[in-house]
Amino acid sequence: MSAQIEKLQAAIAPYREQIINHKVYNAIKNLEDLKVFMQFHVYAVWDFMSLLKTLQNNLTCTSVPWFPTGNADTRYLINEIVNGEESDIDDLGIRKSHFEIYLDAMEQCGADTTPIHTFIKVLRNTKDLKAAFLAAGTYQEAVEFVDFTFKIIDSDQWHLQSAIFTFGREDLIPGMFYSIVKDIDLRFPDSVSKFKYYLERHIEVDGDHHSHLALQMTANLCGTDEDYWMEAEKATIASLQKRIKLWDGVYNQITNASKELQPLSTY
């Protein structure tokens, strides 16, 4: 591991600890609480895929006529990750993206998928994030999380896109949360098995193989440019702060005595 990666990891460690030890996990006591979590988290699952495809579009040739684009090692790294994230297998052995597997898990447990489906439909038709958020009644914390991701996407700075992808995403879900889900699955085996499978796939694939590929991709893109590494550190910290705020939103919604899922967006 390069000295630059070790330095970046040390700088972001306090923020990662806040996420891994966030009070939201202990707040999840039952299936209803888990539904709330998923209705927030699904936006992070979706924009992860958008960030992934942005990197593939930038680092490889995805248009015709084809031309060799960028560094072949970096092309390999991002294409390998895309293959696993966009066309994995679900619990029945059917090829699906991780986003589609997540939607299946939401539907199995009874979480409301209407907002995210509305968001996708409006965005597909209008290409307008603001209009999609408004139509879906997206929670404000989820709005801000996705907006930040797309700010980095629109920056066209590949090293920043790679950095928040590598250091600020799904490997942040702690073992404690997986234990909670396993406990709920024991009580509601016909409601949580698909979500448990989703987490297991992330632990198996993202936590090992993909994380190593992503680290190398970021190292390739930042190279020996100290300014790039400092910019990557700053962007990653901002990304982690948005995740903390997203988890704060989930926690506040779960601990709301009424448990009524009212949209929080003032976008």
Detailed description of the structure:
There is one protein chain. With 267 residues, this protein is an all-alpha fold. It is built from twelve helices and two strands; from the N terminus they run H-H-H-H-E-E-H-H-H-H-H-H-H-H. Strands 1-2 form a two-stranded antiparallel ribbon. Helix 5 packs antiparallel against helix 11. The protein is globular and about 50 Å long. The protein starts with a helix and ends in a 13-residue tail after the last helix. The model has no long low-confidence stretch (mean pLDDT 90).
Number of helices: 12
- In terms of per-residue confidence, which ranges show pLDDT below 50 for 5 or more consecutive residues? none
What coarse outline follows from CA principal-axis ratios? Answer: globular
Tell me what portion of residues adopts beta-strand conformation.
Answer: under 5%
Strand order of the largest sheet: 1-2
Give the termini separation. 41 Å
Radius of gyration: 18 Å
Q: Biggest sheet, open or closed, and with what strands and sense?
A: 2 strands, antiparallel
What's the total count of β strands? Answer: 2
Please provide the ordered H/E string of secondary-structure elements. HHHHEEHHHHHHHH
Write down the overall mean pLDDT: 90
Q: Could you estimate the helical fraction of the residues in percent?
A: over 70%
What structural class is derived from the secondary structure elements?
A: mainly alpha
